Structure formats: C-alpha cells, structure tokens
From TrEMBL, chain B:
Membrane topology label: Multi-pass membrane protein
Protein name as catalogued: Metal ABC transporter permease
Species for this entry: Winogradskyella marina
Pfam family, one: ABC-3
UniProt subcellular location: Cell membrane
Broad class of where this protein is predominantly found: membrane
UniProt record similarity statement: Belongs to the ABC-3 integral membrane protein family.
Keywords, sorted A to Z: Cell membrane, Membrane, Transmembrane, Transmembrane helix, Transport
Keyword Transferase: no
Length: 265, 386
C-alpha cells in the first residue's frame, strides 16, 4: 500500500528525552507516523509512558489523539515507526491491554443486553472459537457491580443513558483485567455523577499499579484527574508529569492560540 | 402432495435458512446492498463455470461464481477507498458492469448453453426435482437439494464456531481488532459465506429474489427482538414460513414460485413493521401520543405547583392560562385525577401530596438528568423511558 511514502519519511528523532520516572516503561512509541491517504495525521511521534501513571492525552480537534491510541493498538496501520508494550510488540501483549473506544463508534441499537456487552471483554482471553462460560459471566457481573450497573445487567443497550453506556464500556474494559487501559474520551456526553464514578475507578486502577491512558478534552480537570499528560498536535508537543509541564506555555504551543486560562487554582 | 412438491418445498426451506443466517449479519452491519451487488455480479462466474463444467450444480462452478462475489466486494471497497466516490455509488458501478458481462456471455453462447436470462433473474425452482443426483445407480434426490443442503451445513457449522467473533466484530470493530479478532478476516469470511450461499440459492430463486431472502427475514426479525440469537431464530423462521407458504400461494394462483415467496416475505415484513410490539410503526405512534399527553400533564402539574392564586387554578379558566384547547385540557385533567395527583374543590384544582411529590421528582429528573430516583416511575410513564 504505502510503499513509496515509507521511503519519504525520515527517521529524525531529535533527542528530546522524555521525562520518565525511574520505573518501568509500559508503552514505548518510536518514530510513529500515521497517514490517511498519505496525509500524515501523526508525525514522527516518540513517546514513553511509564508504568503506573494516569495519563491524559490532550490536543485540539484533529490533533490525532484517537489515532495515536488506535495505532498503538494495531487498529490502524502506521506507515512508519513501531510500538512496544513492555518491550514486546502489541501482538504478543494483547492480554495486557484493554481498550475503551469512543461511545459513538458503535451502534447502540445492536440487539443485545448490557451483560453481554461486558462479556465481550472476556473474548480476548478466550481466543478464537471457545465460548464464554460461567467463569466469564461471573467476571462480567463483578465488573458491572464495580461500575454501579448491576441493576441494569439485562437492560437492552439502546435503553441505557449515555452515562450508563459509558459505564458499560468501562466495565467491559475492567473485565479484561489488563495492565494497561486505553480510553477514548470516556467523559464525553456523560453526566457529572458518571464522570465522578469513572474517574474514581480510574484512580483505583492506578492505585492498583495499572497504567491508564485517556484521551481527554476538558483541560480544566487535567490537574485534578491526572498525574501525567501528553500534549499532542500532529506532533508530540510535550509529555511528562502534570505538575511540571501542564502550563500556559505548552497549552499555547498545542492549541496554537495564546492560551490565557490559568490552570493553577 | 407429490414427491416433487415435497422436494421443492424442502429446497425452498433450506435456501431460506441458508440466506437468513448471513442476511442477519448483513443487516446488522448495514450492508444489505452488498448482497444485491453479489447476487448480480456472480453471473459471469456462473457462466464461465458452466462453460467449463457443463453442470450448474458442480462444486467448481459454485466456487468460481462465489469468487466473482468476493471480487465484487474487493472492487467496491477499492473504489470507495480512493475517496472519489461513496460506497453506494461504488456498488452501483461495480455490479452492473459484472452482471452485463454475464449477460453478454450468455447471449453470445445462447445456442449451446442451457441458461437463459429469465432463469438467472427468477430461478427455476419448479424444475429443480427433475435434475437428479444418481450415485451408483441409485437416485438420492434432486441435485440442488444436495447443493443447498451442503452449503447450509457449512454455514451452520461456521455460525456455531464463530458466533462470538461475528457478534463482537459486528458490534464493535475496534474492540474486535484490539482483542486480536481481525475484522478483515471475519468480514471476508462473511462475504465468502454470503457469496457461496447466493450461488447455491441462485439456481432455485434467481438473482433478484435471493436478495429478498437474505434481507427481509432479518429486517423483520430486527424489529421484534433485542437478542441476537432470537433475531437469528426469528429470521430463520420467517424465511422457512415464507418459503413454504409462498410455494402454496404459487400453487393456488398458478404463478411463479419465486415471485410468490418474495411476495409473502414482503407481506411478513409489512405486518411486522406495522404491528411489532415496541419498534412497530403503530407502537411508536401510540407511544409518541402518550408522551405528548404526559408532557402536557407535567406542564399542568407544574403550573399548579407554581401558582397559589385561586384564579390561576380554576377548572374553567385553566385552559386559558396554559393556552390549551378545551379537549386537551380535559384529557389532561382526567389523567391527573385518575392518578390521584390532583383534587378539585369548588372548581379549584390543587395538587395532592402524591402529585406534589411526582412533580418535584420529575423536575429533578429533567434538570439533573439522573436516573436513579425515577426508576420506579418508569413503569407507569412513557416519558421517562428515554
């Protein structure tokens, strides 16, 4: 497919060493370039995500935030670069990763119930052909309980509110019992209660040593919710601890306008 | 009932089941039109296969024709991927091109080929019992029965083995990919099954009607259930019913079997479309009417809650204050009274305790959009069912 453009991409990584804690690197992205119809939407991304952080990916619309996640998960094929999860390619590490797509990416009129959607999270560990059984059902029920949706387990998914649908997606990721969680705008179109419920679960995951990576839109809540942040706008602008790099300078570089909102309370 | 009649119904029934299974997934994937494209563009494959094998039921012919079906899907996707035309345009470009090649091939060789356009479009179910499969001198039944039966067996086996994969990739392609179930593999698997089934059914019901057998039962089933397995079962049942009943309609009217089957399919869908309990058009209209009344009721209760003045709550002036017609005001008043939400003293309306509580809760819900507290109200009132 993209053979000729592959040669045009220069592997020039200016040694902008990512600030990392002393710990293990959970996700490492090297020189990643992704293009739609040969127009790059992500350009030469280098990124190291340390284990155990709760990280926001922020950037304007069209910055390639969702694309970055999809490329890491192998859903989109990059035209250059590589991704490793704990030093191995994603294909070998699937079991360690859970993914929550944007709520709007699926058809909620699909004929199924909440419990069944959560059970889908167990399909990865089952592999091809094998059917989910009692063990998987139990895990799904526990996940539903965790997100406060047990009472809705038999509800048709189109009959759930936006916040409830998002919780179902979260439960589906929890059931995978992964080490790394990728979430694409989990707070979009949810009510305040759901937002709090979700962030509490994410913080719990971090406490349990998991790495959580979230595409996030609401800049105001970044310091409150996250401890790590990546600024992205086709290129990577900055990545590191929120307390060190979440400042007007980086916001301006990312969003292109003189960013005036002060984030220090 | 003669043996031939029984065999025709059996073939029609098996074809219906074989079509309903991939059809269900095509409908859920919003790919109904691709079955139309496949059913037409397999024609050149069938013709070329027939030149080679001289046998409409040969497995080689079926594979060749199914391959043309896959080529259609690939071509449509390729043209669409260039970004120059949309998917429906791409479909509209590809299948007539392939179909017309088939038509020309038939016309050029009409003399020595036992194939004509009528049969291609409408099938020849009535003649199916005449082409027998003879093994070791014994007649084991019509050839097309064996062909369709084999295809159905393969389809059911694949469905049974890969149900979970089909479900997850149909519902959420991104998740399926991240879990390691390649959506492309499943997509082309489904396309292959659809193509093979179309070729197998083609001989019996023709290129146009095979589309109806794939889409109509699934579309009707979709309106009746919220469970994928039940949807499959219903689609299969509708397919079988239409095949058998359609056969007898053709028998009574002395008309085309394929045409009658499709007419029955259309009627089945129409009935479901009208009368399906929650998604049918009548149910939807009824629900909308109920919702309008309930919104009115709430407006009315809110008015009572906000106004202590007696003149604002007088029965005869209510409609003026809320600017309603008398009939509507009466309906709402009756509904509120029936639910013990208001009482009327000396022509003056007041909220009861229950009415007061209901109004507060409803307002709360509308403002906060939180579900928890009104779960128990949902059963009584449409308005809160989302």
């Amino acid at each position: 497919m993209g053979n000729k453009s592959k040669e045009n991409i220069k592997h020039s990584s200016p040694n902008d060493k990512t600030p990392t804690s002393a710990g293990v690197i959970a996700v490492k992205v090297d020189d990643l370039t992704v293009a739609y119809n040969y127009k790059p939407v992500l350009w030469d991304i280098d990124l190291e995500i340390p284990e155990g952080v709760l990280m926001a990916i922020v950037g304007p619309n069209g910055a390639g935030k969702s694309t970055l996640i999809k490329a890491i998960l192998g859903i989109l094929k990059p035209i250059a670069g590589s991704v490793t999860i704990y030093d191995k390619p994603y294909d070998k590490q699937r079991q360690l990763v859970a993914y929550v797509p944007q709520k709007g990416s699926v058809d909620w009129d699909f004929p199924t119930i909440a419990l069944d959607v959560v059970m889908m999270g167990t399909y990865g560990s089952l592999g091809w052909i094998k059917r989910p059984g009692q063990k998987e059902k139990k895990a799904a029920l526990e996940a539903l309980e965790k997100v406060g949706m047990l009472a809705f387990k038999n509800r048709q998914i189109s009959q759930l509110s936006g916040g409830q649908q998002q919780r179902i997606f979260l439960a589906r990721a929890l059931v995978q019992n992964a080490a790394i969680y990728f979430m694409d705008e989990p707070f979009q179109g949810v009510d305040a209660t759901t937002e709090i419920a979700i962030i509490n679960i994410l913080k719990e995951l971090r406490k349990a040593g998991k790495t959580v990576i979230v595409v996030h839109h609401d800049l105001q809540t970044v310091p409150e919710y996250f401890d790590w942040v990546t600024f992205l706008n086709v290129k990577k602008i900055a990545t590191g601890p929120v307390k060190d790099i979440f400042n007007d300078d980086n916001l301006t570089k990312t969003y292109g306008i003189n960013y005036q909102v002060s984030i220090q309370e | 009932m003669s043996n031939a009649q029984l065999e025709i119904q059996l073939i029609a029934g098996l074809v219906a089941v074989a079509c309903a299974i991939p059809g269900t997934f095509l409908v859920l994937r919003k790919m109904a039109m691709i079955s139309d494209a496949i059913s037409h563009s397999i024609l050149p494959g069938i013709v070329v296969g027939f030149f080679i094998t001289q046998d409409l039921n040969s497995p080689l012919l079926i594979l060749l024709a199914a391959l043309t079906g896959i080529i259609t899907v690939v071509l449509v996707e390729y043209i669409q991927k260039t970004g120059l035309v949309k998917e429906d345009t791409a479909i509209g470009l590809v299948f007539p091109a392939l179909f017309s090649i088939g038509v020309i091939l038939i016309a050029k060789n009409a003399n020595d080929v036992h194939l004509d356009i009528d049969a291609v479009l409408l099938g020849e179910l009535a003649f199916a019992p005449f082409d027998r499969l003879i093994i070791g001198g014994t007649d084991v039944g019509p050839k097309s029965l064996w062909v369709v039966g084999t295809i159905l067996l393969i389809t059911i086996t694949l469905l049974f083995l890969f149900f979970k994969e089909l479900k997850v990739s149909t519902f959420d392609k991104g998740l399926a990919a991240s879990l390691g179930f390649s959506p492309a593999v499943i997509h082309y698997g489904l396309m292959s099954v659809s193509s093979v089934t179309t070729v197998g059914a083609f001989d019996a019901v023709g290129a146009i009607l095979v589309v109806a057998l794939m889409i109509a039962p699934a579309a009707a089933a979709y309106l009746l259930t919220t469970n994928l397995k039940k949807m499959l079962a219903l689609a299969i049942s509708f397919g079988i019913f239409s095949a058998i009943f359609g056969y007898w309609v053709a028998h009574w009217l002395d008309a085309s079997i394929a045409g009658s089957i499709t007419t029955v399919l259309g009627l089945v869908f129409l009935l479901v479309y009208l009368f399906a309990p929650s998604k049918g058009i009548i149910a939807v209209m009824y629900r909308e009417k109920q919702q309008r009344t309930e919104v009115s009721l709430l407006t009315f209760l809110l008015h009572l809650k906000n106004h202590d003045e007696v003149e604002e709550r007088h029965v005869n002036h209510l409609y003026e204050h809320i600017n309603w017609q008398k009939v509507r005001a009466k309906t709402v008043l009756d509904l509120a009274q029936k639910n013990n939400m208001i009482h009327i003293d000396n022509q003056v309306v007041s909220l009861t305790e229950k009415g007061d509580e209901f109004t507060s809760k409803a307002i709360d819900y509308i403002i906060t959009n939180e579900d928890a507290q009104i779960e128990d109200m949902k059963d009584d009132f449409f308005l809160f069912r989302g």
